[in-house]
Amino acid sequence: MTGVPTDSADCAESPDSTAWFEAARFGLFVHFGLYSMAARHEWVRSREAMSQEAYDRYLDRFDPDLFDARQLARAAKESGMRYAVLTAKHHDGFCLFGSALTDYTSVRATGRDLVREFVDAMRAEGLRVGLYYSLLDWHHPDFTIDEHHPLRGTAAEEEPRDMARYRAYMEGQIRELLTGYGKIDTLFFDFTYPEKGPEEWGAEHLLSTVRALQPDILVNDRLGVPGDYVTPEQYQPDRPLERAGERVTWEACHTLNGSWGYDRDNHDYKDPALLVRMLVQSVACGGNLILNVGPTGRGALDPQARATLRAIGDWSALHERSVRGAGPSAHEAPAAGLYTQAGNRLYLHLPVWPLKHLHLPGLAGRVRYAQLLHDGSEILFSELDGTRHEHNNLAPPSQPAGTLTLTLPIARPDVLLPVIELELDGAE
Ligand code: GLC
Asked: Which of 182, 207, 307, 333 could join 339 in a cystine, given CB atoms 3.0 to 4.6 angstroms apart?
């Protein structure tokens, strides 16, 4: 990198611990802004190569009368989430906070500082607070026109623009966000792409500014330099993520329907059972899941989002301990099962309900007690000696030695994802 201040010594100082984040496991992402009124994806201005004047029709009518941060906080908490992240500024440059550095804010438009409402409400529910900050800014006059910019291919490309001034603007806004709203637990920068990366963002300087202002904050990796966690997007890792042989902290971010911003005509919804499976798969692979909602143009959760959060909440209320405070297990899960573990509790998640018996490799002699988690009902188990099938001494061995066999009810429990809690003997 050239010409960019490098405070790499400071930069290297990540917070002592990602413990709260990895224990929380499940968070809420909220994408809200002027694009919510267009109701056709948060990239609408870029996708439709809209001029600023055309896009201003949303600013002129912005009225988030149904944006109720307390309701959002309750919905998040009731669905089992323990942190929440709001788009303080998205790629369109519109700020949901009071910034002295621009008029392009919700405060100027409506008198409301939505970031303040959000952080206050989340804290009141005991949730950790995060902010999303877009590195792209299609409103700022110094942000150079690139392949994503709505003004690409127009005469505006000839105007002088100065990324150094834009970098100063970003630093100023990050200072505002990290000094004016109390403790911010996590910061989600977005994003680096071939035309713009760490050099254009002044990434190392920005990151050291963040660390200096809030030493405990967790920062993601999208400045294009390593942060405290990595961010697979709309993609589900199926094993722990590693860098140079070391496990890394990660958070998969997912939409309900493929769009982050409210997208009225998009009905490509993931059903709640799939979302719960994705959450559990994340935990089983040592990661988090942050699930997005895109409130409507008026700021409310649409019925589908509300119903989805409620359904996940019904599951979480009965199964939370297989997720919160849990992580991957060293035990080998049976085919189609997913293990998570917390201390000597091993949680077996069963997306497909087996017929009566379930064989668990390597657990013979290791389990003291087993129960269905949702109702605390005992599950009986036996240890086959590996040479015989039940009731038939002549049959060939069906299971290798060391297998533990559970006897399950015939009827699948009526929950989104059944979980069996196995109490292991000894310390794990
Ligand atoms: C992408 C999109 C953006 C969204 C983000 C969430 O980078 O550009 O619209 O906010 O992902 O991770």
From this structure: 333
